[in-house]
Amino acid sequence: MCDARHTRNDCAGDILARVQAIVGIGASEPKPAAGVARETLTRDMFALSSYLMRRSNLRTFSTIAELDLSFTQIKALCRMDESSEECSVKALAESMGVSLAAMSRAIDGLYERGFVDRREDPVDRRMKRVRLTEAGRSMTSSLAEGRLAGVQEFLGSLSDEQAGALARALELILDGRPEIAELRPSQTARGQQGPKP
What we know:
Elements: H1 10-23, H2 38-67, H3 71-81, E1 87-88, H4 89-96, H5 100-112, E2 116-120, E3 128-132, H6 134-156, H7 160-176, H8 178-181
Antiparallel strand pairs: 1-3, 2-3
């Protein structure tokens, strides 16, 4: 039996059994979508995502602690990693809801460590434009690899039946949700090609 905070490994089996029942895996007739108990599914998905985040965040937080980066610097790195194009420090600050002064300090620290390139805007020399360097992209990749390792650890704890059921459920979802499917990492944390659902 799983505890209320869903911290035990056997919680995953309960959640997967519910997902199987909801999507009709293993049943001769799929269950109608109208019969899905959305409140239960929401709570189960929350439990699973919370478990995965807890497992994955341990490695990610260790990496962050080793780097001695501020939360604003981590957010800025991750935001800039979303695009290969440069952006202004002001636009970056506005998109993250922090002051221009706080973002300027964060960027100064990232620049000093070689994680970002910084240059004057050709039109407005008062404005600074920034983008990630290869070292900055490598940094965001290492943070993602920490999270991916936690997911791999979880998947390794599943039985073949549970892993197969999860793969089928994810295939149903990802086939119709390209905005989620495009977030698949191309490689696993160990540098090998990751499985495609």
